[in-house]
Write a structure and sequence with these properties.
The chain is built from ten helices and 16 strands. It is of the alpha/beta class. Helix 6 links the parallel strand 12 and strand 13. The strands form three sheets. It has a seven-stranded antiparallel beta sheet with strand order 6-1-2-5-4-3-7. A seven-stranded mixed beta sheet has the order 11-10-9-8-12-13-16, with helices on both faces. The protein has a two-stranded antiparallel ribbon with strand order 14-15. The longest helix is centred in the last third of the chain and has 18 residues. Helix content is 31%, strand content 30%. It has two domains: 89 residues, Translation factors (Elongation Factor Tu (Ef-tu), domain 3); 158 residues, 3-Layer(aba) Sandwich (Rossmann fold), CATH 3.40.50. It binds nicotinamide-adenine-dinucleotide and FE2/S2 (inorganic) cluster. FE2/S2 (inorganic) cluster binds next to loops.
C-alpha cells in the first residue's frame, strides 16, 4: 500500500497527491509516469509524476477526473492509501542544452511539462513556457512554471484570465516575431499536440510530444499503448511516452483512444449510479472498491 501524505485540488477535477513511494522518488526523472491501481479488481491507469522528493521519499502525481477510476481516485484524501503504484515508467525526457526551448503545457498536461521545463532550465536552456487552459479556474502550476521559465505566457480559451486563445496562438506569435526556437516540447490534449506539430513542421523546428494512449501493464507486454511512429509500431510505455512529433500518426492515436469510449462511458454511468444509490460521503479506497464494480479495460 502507498500512503497519501497530502491531497489537494489544484483546480476543479484536478487533484495533486503526495504519495510515499521512496524507491520511485529516488529513481524518477522528468517525462516519466506511474501506473496505479486503487483496488484489487480495479483498472490500471497511467498517471503523470509532477515532482518527487528523494529525501522525503515522496512523489507528486496529478490526476484529472475523467473516467470511473480517476473520479474514484479523486475521492481519496490525506491518510488514505493506494493499492499499487508501479514506476517510474517510460523513458525520461532527453535533457540537453539546446538553446531556446518552448515548453507547452495544455490543461492537465502542464503537470507533465513542468518537470521537463525545470530540467531544461537547469541544463542551461532559455525556457519560454506557454500554458493553456479552458478558463481561469483550470490554469494549474502557474507559480511553478514561472519559477523555471525565462518567460511564461498563459492563454485561456474563454479569455477569463491572461490572453484569450489557444497555446498555438502564442507559439504562432513567437514564430512570427522571429524568435529563435531550437526545440518545442508539448504535452496536452492530442488535438493540441497535433496542431503544434503542424505549425512547427513548416518551420523545421524539432518538436517532442508526450503521448497518452490507453495503457494497461506499462511494460511493453500487452500492446495496449501501441502508437504509429514514422510508419512503425512502437509502445508508448517503453519506447515513449515522448516521441518526435513530426513522426507521430495522430489519426491512429485518436482512433485507438476512441475504441474504449463506450465501455468507459458505461463504466462511468454504473459508477455514478452506485454512488447515488449509496448516497454517502466518499469512502476510503478499500470501501469504494467493494461498491464500484464496472467495465474494466
Ligand atoms: P483541454 O482540452 O482543456 O485543453 C488544454 C489546452 O490545449 C487549451 O486551453 C488550448 O490552449 C489547447 N488546445 C485544445 N484544443 C486545441 C486545438 N484544437 N488547437 C490548439 N490548441 C488546443 O485539456 P485538458 O482537458 O486539461 O486535457 C489535457 C490532456 O492532456 C488530456 O487529454 C490528457 O490525457 C493529456 N495528458 C497527457 C499527458 C501525457 O503524458 N502525454 C499527461 C497528462 C495529460
Ligand atoms: Fe502494455 Fe504499453 S501499456 S504495452
Amino acid at each position: 500500500m502507498f500512503k497519501i501524505v497530502h491531497a489537494q485540488f489544484l483546480a476543479p477535477g484536478i487533484k495533486r497527491f503526495v504519495i510515499e513511494a521512496p524507491r520511485i522518488a529516488r529513481k524518477q526523472k522528468p517525462g516519466q509516469f506511474v501506473i496505479l491501481r486503487i483496488y484489487e479488481q480495479g483498472e490500471r491507469i497511467p498517471v503523470t509524476i509532477e515532482n518527487s522528493d528523494p529525501d522525503r521519499g515522496t512523489i507528486n502525481i496529478v490526476v484529472q477526473a475523467a473516467g470511473k477510476t480517476t473520479n474514484l481516485l479523486n475521492t481519496l484524501e490525506t491518510g488514505d492509501s493506494i493499492l499499487d503504484v508501479v514506476g517510474p515508467l517510460g523513458k525520461p525526457s532527453e535533457i540537453a542544452n539546446y538553446g531556446t526551448v518552448v515548453v507547452v503545457g495544455g490543461g492537465v498536461g502542464t503537470a507533465m511539462a513542468y518537470p521537463t521545463a525545470a530540467a531544461l532550465k537547469r541544463a542551461g536552456n532559455r525556457v519560454l513556457s506557454i500554458v493553456g487552459a479552458r478558463n481561469k479556474e483550470l490554469v494549474i502550476l502557474e507559480r511553478e512554471m514561472r519559477e523555471v521559465s525565462d518567460a511564461l505566457m498563459i492563454t485561456t480559451d474563454d479569455g477569463s484570465y491572461a490572453d484569450k486563445g489557444f497555446v498555438t496562438d502564442k507559439l504562432k506569435q513567437l514564430i512570427q516575431n522571429g524568435t529563435r526556437i531550437d526545440l518545442v516540447v508539448a504535452v496536452g490534449p492530442i488535438v493540441m499536440m497535433k496542431a503544434i506539430t503542424e505549425l512547427t513542421r513548416k518551420e523545421y523546428i524539432r518538436t517532442v510530444v508526450s503521448l497518452n494512449p490507453i495503457m494497461i501493464d506499462g511494460t511493453g507486454m500487452c500492446g495496449g499503448c501501441r502508437v504509429l511512429i514514422d510508419g512503425k509500431s512502437e509502445f508508448a510505455c517503453v519506447d515513449g511516452p515522448e516521441f518526435d512529433g513530426h513522426k507521430v500518426n495522430f489519426e491512429v492515436l485518436v482512433q485507438r483512444n476512441a475504441m474504449y469510449r463506450n465501455a468507459e462511458q458505461k463504466s462511468m454511468e454504473e459508477f455514478k449510479r452506485s454512488r447515488e444509490a449509496l448516497a454517502v460521503e466518499p469512502e476510503p479506497a478499500c470501501v469504494v472498491a467493494q461498491t464500484a464494480q464496472g467495465v474494466e479495460r
